[in-house]
Design goal:
globular, about 240 residues, 7 helices, 3-stranded antiparallel beta sheet
């Protein structure tokens, strides 16, 4: 059980450890500065980040995405299966990165995604969905099955039959044909505030540069702490 849980010796509380495979922008890049600034948290350093001028109120609408750090999900947070170790996960992710070519994504735009605000591709290339599917399949053998509480948190009653099947098979409903690349910038917002936040963030983001994914990042979460970067794995090419 030690590979799945980490004991806080000072309190006697056992904290669940989860891992995730994300795309995170290169530290120090314009994209990284924008995202970490809006969220007020840098998962690479584990430190708080000063928000840009005019965005102090973003602290009120970024509580959830700040816990995960600025990212796009490739393999959703998961516990390790019995007998699997962190080193096994790193090795599997490194093998994926070692043989993968860069994935062109193109220009990102600020959009409303359901109740959330996020950066999404202006046009999503087919290669991006194929890459995300590779990530899901490559790491799934190391994933522990969902517990009843984990499954319940995904609100399966609100999912389509296909999404429930994906949840049960892969631990996450938004995979394969239901995958959509996005980098979340806000919590779920009331309808009347979605457009104002989208417009403010779009002005702050500007045109941006065309994105090319040339690395993947493994992150770790202990208990309810924010996710922290475990290792960033550049593609070999």
């Amino acid at each position: 059980m030690l590979n799945r849980r980490r004991t806080r010796e000072t309190t006697g509380v056992t904290a669940i450890t989860r891992y995730a495979l994300y795309y995170t922008p290169e530290p120090g890049s314009a994209l990284a500065r924008f995202g970490t600034g809006i969220l007020g948290y840098d998962s690479a350093s584990g430190a708080a980040v000063a928000r840009p001028e005019g965005f102090a109120d973003a602290a009120d609408v970024t509580l959830s995405p700040a816990r995960y750090g600025f990212h796009a999900t490739l393999k959703a947070p998961m516990r390790l299966a019995q007998g699997r170790r962190e080193e096994d996960l790193i090795a599997a992710a490194a093998a994926l990165a070692a043989h993968h070519p860069p994935v062109p994504v193109g220009r990102l735009v600020v959009a409303t995604l359901g109740a959330f605000t996020a950066l999404v591709p202006a046009e999503s290339p087919a290669a991006l969905g194929l890459f995300a599917a590779e990530c899901v399949a490559a790491l799934d053998p190391l994933r522990a099955p969902l517990s009843e509480s984990e499954r319940a948190r995904r609100r399966p009653e609100r999912l389509s039959p296909r999404q429930r099947a994906l949840l049960d098979a892969w631990g996450y409903p938004h995979v394969f044909e239901h995958f959509r690349f996005h980098m979340t910038l806000t919590d779920a917002l009331p309808e009347e505030t979605r457009a104002p936040w989208r417009e403010r963030l779009a002005r702050a983001y500007g045109a941006g540069e065309a994105l090319v994914i040339d690395s993947v990042t493994l992150l770790r979460q202990d208990g309810d702490a924010p996710f922290r970067v475990l290792t960033r794995l550049p593609f070999a090419s």
